[in-house]
Amino acid sequence: MSGELAAALAAEHAAIYAYGPIGARLTGDAAKQAREAEAAHRRRRDSLVLLLTTRGDEVPGAAAGYELPFPVTDEASALRLAVQVEERTAAVWRAALPATEGAERTRALDGLTDAAIRATRWRRRAGIAPATVPFPGRPA
Amino acid sequence: MRSTDTNQENGTPGRSRRAVVRGAALLALVGAAGLTGCGLFEDEPDPAPDLITPLIAGALELAARYDAAVAIAPELAERLRPIAEAHRAHAAELARVTRTALPTLTAVTPAATAAVSPGSGSAQRRAAVLHGLREAEQAGRDAARTACAEAPAEQAALLGSIAAARATHLEILR
Q1: Which of A20, A132, B25, B29 is the most buried (most CB within 10 A)?
Q2: pLDDT by residue (tens digit) across A109-120?
Q3: DSSP letter at B74?
Q4: CA distance, residue A64 to nearest chain B CA (Å)
Q5: Residue among B86, B149, B153 minimizing CB distance to A134
Q6: Which long-range CB contacts under 8 A does B58-62 form with residues at least 24 apart?
Q7: Contacts with A102 from chain B: Cβ below 8 Å
Q8: ipTM of the complex
Q9: Could you report the per-residue pLDDT of B52-70, keeping only the tens digit for each?
């Protein structure tokens, strides 16, 4: 169970990192959306660190840097990365569902749901239609 | 003794016949357990249709509601059609993993139509349609969340995806 939650924590670290270059290429409402998304990932990271620490599990730290899947050079690539980050985060939380139960499964479901909602918001902003996918977090 | 010996020679096929009969009875039991989900056998994964069956019906009903909404407000088609398709995909996937047949939708009369009087203007009509869909989708999301929380491990991911998808539908309806 802790392996999946540690993986979720690693994904949250990576998401927080990615919102740096994403936010730098956005302005106005889109920049605000990026700040809010980053704050949500930080909250999830903090509560996961607390949970894993309390349980005496291994708590993976953030890497010094992460390789982005493509260079973020403008608004379009920033939005594309934001969608990808949320899809990846959704997938990791979804993978934690079968390994958890009770309050921890609810936590994983919230992680999946929030990431899916943010992915939808970013797809809408990027003009991607449809903005939803039938099975959020499921491997393609 | 002699007579039993001769019987034993013929007895081998007799025993195997009995074994075949026992085997068939056992298969029938497994089949029944598979259908009702009583979990008669410990290592038989419990398909828990009590969680899934209402979700399948609910997904098909939601799809029908969106279809009806598009009929009332065709200008919403681009927004609503992908959601109707997602609900149908959910129903199909739930039926597939539980190896149940997809029920045919016969007598669903979505309430979406009832809330809209024929004379209302297009903005008013659109607002009423969206309001009805939001309420139905919200109830569906709650049902999927509850099912996910209670589900056996092997169904948790699918039910979680369905709950998350319904939450994203609410985002589109805002």
Answers
A1: A132
A2: 999 999 999 999
A3: G
A4: 31
A5: B86
A6: B58/B140, B58/B143, B59/B87, B59/B88, B59/B90, B59/B91, B59/B94, B59/B140, B59/B162, B60/B87, B60/B88, B60/B91, B60/B102, B60/B103, B60/B105, B60/B108, B61/B105, B61/B108, B61/B110, B61/B136, B62/B87, B62/B136, B62/B137, B62/B140
A7: 149
A8: 0.96
A9: 999 999 999 999 999 999 9
